[in-house]
Design goal:
Elements lengths: L6 H23 L5 H16 L5 H32 L2 H19 L2 H5 L2 H29 L5 H5 L1 H16 L11 H18 L7 H5 L6 H15 L4 H17 L8 H6 L1 H19 L2 H6 L1 H7 L4 H29 L1 H24 L5 H19 L1 H11 L6 H30 L2 H20 L8 H8 L11 H5 L3
Helix pairs in contact: 1-6, 1-8, 1-9, 2-3, 3-6, 3-21, 4-6, 4-9, 6-21, 8-17, 8-20, 11-12, 14-20, 14-21, 14-22, 16-17, 17-18, 17-19, 18-19, 18-20, 18-22, 19-20
Length: 493
């Protein structure tokens, strides 16, 4: 069976994605199973410092701030990542992601009980958010420039199920009977930092990317070409002629967009040729927030408790739902190979919209015992829809629909919008559910329908198409002649 990416290339991509996205999945779900233990810690710290227990309102505020600071920090990280991309290489940007994650793990783990400070927990969550904001731009960009373009959607998709795996591990290991109890929860908070230590240990063997080497203006063109070709020889199988063709294709793509290489986002947005790339990237990245992933993933226990599932069983229900979601996400990769990113996205969003209707009904009728079961089933279906749709494809489609030079700016802007939306949902979710009940899910249903309509009308099918062909279709140019090459990607499985 012919392979395009070498085992070394696969190693580079898997190390990068596993150490990044599994830890972020764990962090996303970390406060869900450990909430009771952290509430005890907040109360005991308050007694030590002020001589009286913390009020229920104050405790809820600290928990909500801890959840929300993860997203606020991510907004900050997604803003500053553009400046880091201008100063650091692709490889150095990934290193900065993991260095910040290690610092944040220390702040969230041993420091709060040592200092009797719940504020340091909030600081740790904020730093974790910064790391995530950097990663959600730097990691897909690194993978997009490392993988062969014909297999890009295949190698971008693991991010989805790796996050689901991390969320499952977070809910399982963070359970009160495992490491989420009152004494062990600080050690549980350290675990995401261990993944970053693995990345740092492997850093020496990880390369820069061929497009990055080609754009180094401080070197002669011949030297840039030589370095990029030498790296492609390590990353790709095939004859020298095949490698030369890929190198030439990269150079042509970069040259075609040379006029915007130093342009600002505003200047790019003013050019009709590139404006649609920015808009599509923003909408596709926003699709994951439009389905309400921050609400469901961070507050699954609360959702189940609100649906009258006994509190002692809520975390077990969360573990089960995330386990099924992981399975759906893994199977969704093969569905993605068969139908492509556009169809996979639409299918996943449609499934999630049906599930949101079920959650709304379960919330409205929570006085009925059967509604508890409906809430679990609806949450499972919801997470399965997210797993086979936006979770798998929002990185890959965004990367495929943008060109080499525009992609960093597009991912940067889309990341800021994505996390601004997430911060609003994360902080407002508990209060929205309390104030409006099931109408919260109806709001997200309306957003999903808007995204589906946009994808139907604007986003082209990218399967087997070159960068030029995709851009012509995105610009609604009918003169497109493409030969499907999906079989090439299937050979990588």
């Amino acid at each position: 069976m012919i392979k395009i990416n070498t085992p070394y290339c696969v190693f580079v991509m898997l190390v990068t994605e596993i150490t990044t996205f599994v830890s972020f999945g764990m962090v996303l779900a970390a406060l869900n199973p450990t909430k009771s233990s952290i509430e005890v810690f907040i109360n005991s710290s308050h007694v030590i410092r002020y001589g009286e227990p913390a009020s229920a309102t104050f405790t809820k505020l600290i928990i909500t701030l801890s959840q929300a600071m993860l997203i606020v920090g991510t907004v900050v990280g997604s803003i500053i990542v553009r400046f880091l991309m201008a100063k650091l290489s692709r490889k150095e940007n990934m290193l900065s992601v993991h260095v910040v994650m290690i610092i944040s793990a220390i702040c969230m783990g041993p420091m709060p009980p040592i200092l009797n400070s719940y504020e340091i927990l909030i600081v740790g969550r904020f730093l974790t958010g910064i790391s995530r904001g950097l990663a959600f731009a730097a990691c897909p960009l690194y993978i997009a420039e490392t993988a062969n373009r014909q297999t890009l959607f295949l190698w971008q998709s693991p991010s989805g199920w790796l996050i689901q795996l991390g969320a499952l591990l977070g809910n399982g290991i963070g359970h009160a009977k495992v490491m989420g109890g009152e004494e062990l929860w600080p050690y549980f908070m350290i675990i995401p930092g261990l993944f970053s230590l693995v990345y740092v240990a492997c850093y020496h063997w990880l390369p820069e990317t061929p497009p990055y080497l080609l754009r180094q203006k401080g070197k002669p063109e011949a030297q840039r070409d030589s370095e990029a070709l030498a790296l492609l020889t390590k990353l790709r199988t095939g004859s020298p002629d095949v490698l030369e063709k890929e190198l030439q294709a990269l150079k042509e793509e970069i040259a075609a967009d040379a006029s915007v290489e130093k342009a600002s986002v505003v200047q790019i947005a003013k050019d009709p040729k590139y404006r649609m790339q920015l808009l599509v990237c923003i909408m596709l990245m926003s699709s994951l927030q439009a389905v309400g992933i921050q609400l469901i993933s961070q507050y699954t226990d609360d959702i189940f408790i609100n649906a009258n599932i006994p509190k002692e069983y809520a975390t077990y229900a969360s573990i089960g739902t995330f386990g099924f979601s992981l399975l759906a996400s893994f199977c969704g990769t093969f569905f993605l190979l068969r139908v492509g990113g556009r169809t996979s996205m639409i299918t996943g969003l449609s499934v999630s919209s049906v599930a949101l209707i079920g959650l709304a009904i379960a919330t409205f009728g929570k006085a009925m015992p059967s509604m508890a079961y409906l809430s679990v089933v609806a949450t499972v279906i919801y997470l399965a829809g997210v797993a086979i749709g936006p979770s798998l494809t929002f990185f890959s489609l965004s990367s495929e629909l943008t060109t080499q030079v525009v992609r960093p700016s597009a991912l940067w802007v889309a990341g800021i919008v994505f996390w601004c939306e997430g911060s609003i949902v994360s902080f407002g979710a508990p209060y929205m559910l309390q104030a409006t009940g099931g109408f919260t899910y109806i709001l997200f249903l309306a957003l999903i329908l808007l995204v589906i309509t946009f994808i139907f009308r604007v986003v082209p099918d990218t399967r087997g198409k070159s960068a030029a062909e995709i851009q012509r279709q995105l610009a609604k140019d009918p003169d497109v002649d493409s030969t499907p090459m999906l079989e090439v990607a299937k050979q990588e499985v």
